[in-house]
Design goal:
- By secondary structure, the chain is an all-alpha fold.
- The protein has one domain.
- Strand 1 and strand 2 form a beta hairpin.
- The longest helix has about 55 residues.
- The termini are far apart.
- The N terminus and C terminus are likely disordered.
- It holds the Pfam family 7tm_7.
- One of its GO terms (biological process) is detection of stimulus.
- It is found in: Membrane.
Amino acid sequence: MLRKIDVRPRDTGEIISVTKASSSKENFSSRPKISFAAITCLMKCSGMYINEELCCCSHYLHAMYCIALSLLNWMDLSRMVYVATGETTMSATLVTKLTFIWYQFWVYYLFMIEHFLIRKHYRKVILSFQRYFEAYERSFKRKRVTRLIYAYVCTGVLLSLLFAALQMVLCVVDALNESSPILKIIRPTGLNIKTYSIPYILLSSLNGFSKGVNCLSIFVNWMFFSVCIYCFCKEYQFIYDRLKDIVEMDADPKVVEERLEMLRKRHEEMTKVVSQSNAILKHFTFVTYAAGMPMTCSVLYGMITGQLDLSDTIFMLMCLVIINLQMILVTSVAAYLNSKVHKPLDGIFQLDLGKVTDKTVQLLTVFAARLTGPSIGIGVWDLFVIDKSTIMMIGGTLITYAVVVIQFKTDGQVSHISNNSSFIS
């Protein structure tokens, strides 16, 4: 038989309803947790994650699968580097190939993160989330997180399947085309074209499958990044709201001390979860800037110097929009999280220290020292933490580069005119 009881959370004054089973032991679950089941299932289907409880043979097969896909990605990256090294002048062809190289590096690095790094840290992140929400009340609606996860899952699966199918069809059509590069190589040798076309089609199909997996890995990274940032921001906003309530209320100093200690511990525990998640997210942010900045510079150079034709210009514009959209979203969201983490400092400064005990003052000093210490948030390979100043740094770098390219283009035009001038005697 079930009966309802009212439970007052330890750090809030709100009443929540919990269904409790009336049994001899009075056992019941504390609070619902976040479900990462959809993310885990998607990662298992694409081969990005495998349970540690499985046998050794499964782990060996998974390792061989990851190595095979990584070799296919490495072949694509090496091919683009080899083709680009054949260009000796800064032409439109070289600019386009350099953009392809940085794009392939971006995809390859994300693939390596998903298939070789996430197995080490993903389970730890899930356990840290579960421990946190077992100890504290969840401050957001679980349905919103679930909808966000399933939206990413559906979009990622559909686009990945479409991309893989399109890549396979293009490879088969290219192999059967009379003007195909592979046929131009085989035909002068006198070898049987069918004998070499079938392995080429199979290898191209595997390459298309790897492209679909790469597309899926990009969505998994975005899904994990978005869910983590959403949970972090909601929790830190909840802590700040409870701190504002403490500042505005006129309660017993002992009650204020207990609630402040609870908020400080909750903030510290959430910071530990952020640090654990940063073991994965720092690689996602690193590759965003490491590939995004050179790609943007290549696109700006090609467009400003006017060395691109219409098709290359359209491709460059697409690359510019996609990679800059990712950089803007990553930078703005991570900077927003950083501001949420340090926002409780404003509430601490508004607290009247004359109405609290000496122990509370010491507690506030420790809390303020933590908030004014090293910046907390999403880092970039432990080099720096993304905050509002990062927006100015990235924007200033790109604007400076564009100005320099425009200046060199103008100087080149003036020099060209002066060297071709003639005098009539």
